[in-house]
Amino acid sequence: MENTTVRTERLELRPVRDEDVDRILEYRNLPQVTRWLLRTQVDPASLRAAWRRAAADPDDHSMAATLDGVVIGTVSLDVVDGMGQPGMPPRTEAQLGYIFDPAYGGHGYATEAVTAMVAHAFDRLGVRRITAGCFADNLASVRILEKVGMRREQHGVGDSWHAELGWVDGYTYALLAETWHRESAP
Ligand SMILES: CC(C)(COP(=O)(O)OP(=O)(O)OC[C@H]1O[C@@H](n2cnc3c(N)ncnc32)[C@H](O)[C@@H]1OP(=O)(O)O)[C@@H](O)C(=O)NCCC(=O)NCCS
């Protein structure tokens, strides 16, 4: 992706660099972080390789959220095709995700960063629709998505495999650019 920077009131979002991976690993595998992630424990080499691939992928707009120069979380945004019917414009959808260091939790930083990423996707990248999935019991994630203005479009009953709990419910949230511009933009 290009070398974009997004500033918010308290944070700066910028591409993840190789040297950030050690810092990300300080929180990425903590039990309270992996609890509601689909990819639970990650080993350092695969995490480094995944962020290198992301940096080289023009459709991957994921960024590190930094507070006073310290990486406190990452917000991922992958621009993808829709279902691919003939004539459908490509690269109109984006999938959103986020992982933050619990040491910085409870200050609204994740909400601030995710809100900025959503605005960036609609205003700068020209995305038409953003989706995000989470386990139904991931209350902090649900709260973020609802504060950002995303709509719960699917409650998948027993559709999501959880490493410790087995089959549990999942939610899919979505937001259209037109709704964002109408309701959320300042
Ligand atoms: C989800 C996550 C990013 C939230 O980070 P955070 O720093 O707590 O986020 P914020 O401070 O911006 O806000 C979280 C909101 O959820 C609420 N919240 C946090 N933990 C909660 C919990 N256990 N139960 C209910 N609400 C909770 C907060 O009160 C806040 O809402 P409020 O502003 O209305 O008070 C962080 O917990 C995380 O990275 N978790 C592990 C990875 C993960 O689950 N990622 C999402 C996968 S879908």
Notes on the structure:
It contains six helices and eight strands; from the N terminus they run ββαααβββαβαββα. It is α+β, with helices and mostly antiparallel strands and 186 residues long. It has a domain at 6-131: Aminopeptidase. Strands 1-2-3-4-5-6-8-7 form an eight-stranded mixed sheet, sandwiched between helices. Helix 4 (109-123) crosses helix 5. The longest helix has 15 residues, at 109-123. The structure holds coenzyme A (COA). Coenzyme A (COA) binds at residues 33, 36-37, 97-100, 105-111, 134, 138-141, 143-144.
CATH superfamily of the domain at 6-131: Gcn5-related N-acetyltransferase (GNAT)
The CATH architecture assignment of the domain at 6-131 turns out to be 3-Layer(aba) Sandwich
Strands across the major sheet, in which order?
Answer: 1-2-3-4-5-6-8-7
Cofactors and ligands present? coenzyme A
Termini gap = 27 Å
Strand content: 25-35%
The strand count comes to 8
CATH class of the domain at 6-131: Alpha Beta
List the helices and strands and how they pair.
Layout: E1 6-7, E2 12-14, H1 20-28, H2 31-34, H3 44-56, E3 63-67, E4 70-80, E5 93-100, H4 109-123, E6 129-135, H5 139-148, E7 151-162, E8 166-176, H6 177-184
Helix pairs in contact: 4-5
Coenzyme A binds at residues 33, 36-37, 97-100, 105-111, 134, 138-141, 143-144.
Features:
Aminopeptidase; alpha+beta; 8 strands; 32% strand; 6 helices; 186 residues; binds coenzyme A
Quick synopsis:
The protein is of the alpha+beta class and 186 residues long. The protein has helices at residues 20-28, 31-34, 44-56, 109-123, 139-148, 177-184, and strands spanning 6-7, 12-14, 63-67, 70-80, 93-100, 129-135, 151-162, 166-176. It has a domain at 6-131: Gcn5-related N-acetyltransferase (GNAT) (Aminopeptidase), CATH 3.40.630.30.
